[in-house]
Amino acid sequence: MLKKVSPLTLVQLACGSFVIGSGLIWYAQRNVQKKVRNLPHYKECFTIIAEHEKVISLLGKPIQIGQVDLTDRKSNFIGKDESQLRIPISGKFNSGFLNVHAKRITCEENKDGDTVGLKAIDNSNFVTNTIELELDDKTVLIYEKNN
């Protein structure tokens, strides 16, 4: 015969499931954020803006970087041939978003040995095409790759 399950046991089971599920979701989110931050065009973007005087004057130091909104698939995506990231950024004076547009370049497309962007490509990396700083009142083009 089956025993009657006490309400306390059910509450403990529900709470345990909630804690474990929340922990797994947090871990997955953190893992994807790390992968995004290791993308070559993400890193290249911050190399460029660290030396860009207009960005520093508009935002003010220190500059803080937020997390990419992984649920916004319209503004943040990595496709087969192109990638787009919308990165929250803030400083002492202002805050906004960095819009980073990149294109995948393969070695076959770069046979002449030209370095594209700031770095030469490995096998098949994304190379930054444009970086825009989007503020409340204006959008400033920070970087555009010359073709």
UniProtKB/TrEMBL annotation:
Keyword Transmembrane helix: yes
Keywords: Membrane, Transmembrane, Transmembrane helix
GO BP terms: mitochondrial respiratory chain complex I assembly; mitochondrial respiratory chain complex IV assembly
GO cellular component, one term: mitochondrial inner membrane
The keyword Transmembrane belongs to this UniProt entry's keyword annotation: yes
Protein name from the UniProt record: Cytochrome oxidase assembly protein 1
Transmembrane segments: 6-28
